[in-house]
Amino acid sequence: MYDRIKGFRDFYPGEMAARRATINGLEETARQYGFREIATPAVERAAMWTDKSGDEIVDELYAFEDQGGRHVTLTPELTPTVARMVVAKQQALSKPIKWFSTRPFWRYEQVQQGRQREFYQTNVDIFGSSEPEADAEILAWAADALTGLGLTGEHFEFRISHRDILGGVLETFDADVDTEAAIRAVDKSDKIERVEYHDLLVAAGLSADQAAQFDDLVAAGDLEAIVDFAETETVTDAVENLQNVLAAAEDFGAREYCTISLETARGLDYYTGVVFECFDSTGEVSRSVFGGGRYDDLIESFGGQPTPAVGVAPGHATLPLLMQRAGVWPDEEVSTDYYVLQIGDTRPTAARITRDLRERGNVVETDVSGRSFGAQLNYADSINAETTVIVGEQDLENDEVTLKDMVSGDQIQVPVEAFPGDHDRPTLEDFDA
Amino acid sequence: MYDRIKGFRDFYPGEMAARRATINGLEETARQYGFREIATPAVERAAMWTDKSGDEIVDELYAFEDQGGRHVTLTPELTPTVARMVVAKQQALSKPIKWFSTRPFWRYEQVQQGRQREFYQTNVDIFGSSEPEADAEILAWAADALTGLGLTGEHFEFRISHRDILGGVLETFDADVDTEAAIRAVDKSDKIERVEYHDLLVAAGLSADQAAQFDDLVAAGDLEAIVDFAETETVTDAVENLQNVLAAAEDFGAREYCTISLETARGLDYYTGVVFECFDSTGEVSRSVFGGGRYDDLIESFGGQPTPAVGVAPGHATLPLLMQRAGVWPDEEVSTDYYVLQIGDTRPTAARITRDLRERGNVVETDVSGRSFGAQLNYADSINAETTVIVGEQDLENDEVTLKDMVSGDQIQVPVEAFPGDHDRPTLEDFDA
């Protein structure tokens, strides 16, 4: 009768189990790194984006006026919200501030594979350190999180650069260049034709020759050649910072996943230093799986004290595609340890066994529908029960219940008073005399 | 610079740790019951509420028109969404369908203690069983979930009734009664003056005498007296169903938390059978902590096959108040197993130790800010590190690191190659020769 809105997803239990395992994996690694969970509003002042963001994001806002006349929007990303939170408690928070959270965001985009209008991200950020170790810790978390999900260096790579390398090289041209426009062009360069790319660079202020020269320099990716070409402190410092981040990433175990790639520029305007994107190294590499980088100016632009920041945000629409191509996406199935089957008026005993098994931490279901033996056994199958405990009136007359292994089909009778006994997760073997 | 919107909360790490422990507790119990996690859209067609819901909920919608001209709303509750999901896959889903999820909802309400405009709920529902065992399983889950959080029967009670008892009694009066209006009056009766309550009953169609008689019957709560008064099948069946639910709740271990209370009617119009509300039995009982009940007609009204349903939704704004009054709210603090402190150029060794400790499942931080010994030690204190591993240049010359117990202040030197060695969570005692 009512349809789901385009670009929004329902997640049923099987798919959700796989997603939850993935989210838990990322979050568990974040906890081990000492990132602390936060939770944030779904709705903020629209001005947090309309004042500063690029047109791309503003055009995609789910913005509206609330009943109090506020101009508000569903949040399209986390970063401005955490910036607001850091500013609000700047004095009280000990630095570095290391936060993570997993939640949905909303953008009115063209819907396609791996891109919905409601999309989930796990955001991981460090505020308060400008040192290369902070960038490297973000890279190391991302690498550990992905390898924790079963991915390896054969499946993914981090393409890494520094925004000031491109910006610094652009400054050296004898031209009035719109640096942000040129960097946006670089960011798009692997998705568009060469001619179109050069046209964008020319539109940003370069001559045709300069555009070609710039393209060649960037594509070659030779850091020394770039330092020599630019001969500016900006470029020299940026290259040194990138190399320091990579050296720290070596100590932190993440260097092997990193490839220097100067085309990596990130579309968002607030990045200021090292930027990186995770790409699928097995399949088509036309789109990044997720990205991150340093954004040292954002907190100050939100009215806070200057506070360096670096972060990353794996998205739960594209990450499953990477995991599926690598063959490490979890089975989309529910699992159940025990089904306690009732035949006749055996509810008190079945309920007692059900409660005992649950108290020991098991996933246990029992009949709540008054159904037949066959219907219950079909249901136990449908929820992938490992073991069915059959509590029948006749067995109970002999003070017994029947354990049925749902894979092998083997059955065994067990004294009801001894079940589950001392066993936290009893199997047929535990009672096989 | 930008303010948070009224009625929306930021959750910083300390408070979030307590909330996460609470949510994990509810969800872990739900998993043990065989409830399966789902995830659902934040935005739905506004018509899902404007077509059917009471004015109260419609007036509070965060509704707007999206860029595609759709009339949409932030979802104020989960139930219509899961009804839509059940209808969409009715044939494929094996019954009973047992789902849970924790997420925010949004209502433009008056903000007060325990009531925000963005509020989180853990919804737990069973679809496809009309048997009293399903109602009882919902009650048992709620009881186990709350006791799992450290609450006891001294802290909470479930006030339970059946909508048809009130409806059935109202039908027996020789009057043209608006049953839903009268039930809404009952639902408000403990929050308003007696006179106002009787006025609402009269406005719903009862005479003044009938209103007084109805009030007396309901307040006494004597099920047999009500059956005798009504002498109708509706009331007799409703009382019998309520008693059957309580008998099943006895087997499932939840009966002791249940009190029959016919005033409990739940404000929402879609309830059809047993309804219950959780109240704080220690403090002021003016408002319920959360509620639930049976809503057998909703799926059909959404275009599905007739599908009985029962559910409950503890809210994470009121539950903390109950837990705080009972003294079982978790400490609002972050915890850290190890801080690995670097003095001088010891990053490679510190990073190796950090990684080893994290791989063993510990929460470990190390310096990413290039700070002094004192600043690092203060930071380790601020994150409640249990143990600090001091990796100093001088110690390393002797192939040693220093373990410092952050509570006792005790220190001990340990061979760097032996740390953490075979220990998953090494303490000073493990190395005390």
From TrEMBL, chains A, B:
The keyword Protein biosynthesis applies. It comes from the Archaea. GO terms for molecular function: histidine-tRNA ligase activity. Pfam families: HGTP_anticodon, tRNA-synt_His. HAMAP family: His_tRNA_synth. It comes from Natronoglomus mannanivorans. Gene3D superfamilies: Anticodon-binding domain (3.40.50.800), Bira Bifunctional Protein, Domain 2 (3.30.930.10). Its EC number is 6.1.1.21. InterPro entries: aa-tRNA-synth_II (IPR006195), aa-tRNA-synth_II/BPL/LPL (IPR045864), Anticodon-bd (IPR004154), Anticodon-bd_dom_sf (IPR036621), His-tRNA-ligase (IPR015807), HisRS-like_core (IPR041715), HisRS/HisZ (IPR004516), HisRS_anticodon (IPR033656). Keywords: Aminoacyl-tRNA synthetase, ATP-binding, Cytoplasm, Ligase, Nucleotide-binding, Protein biosynthesis. This is Histidine--tRNA ligase. Belongs to the class-II aminoacyl-tRNA synthetase family. The keyword Cytoplasm applies. Residues 26-133 form the Aminoacyl-transfer RNA synthetases class-II family profile domain. It catalyses: tRNA(His) + L-histidine + ATP = L-histidyl-tRNA(His) + AMP + diphosphate + H(+). It is found in: Cytoplasm.
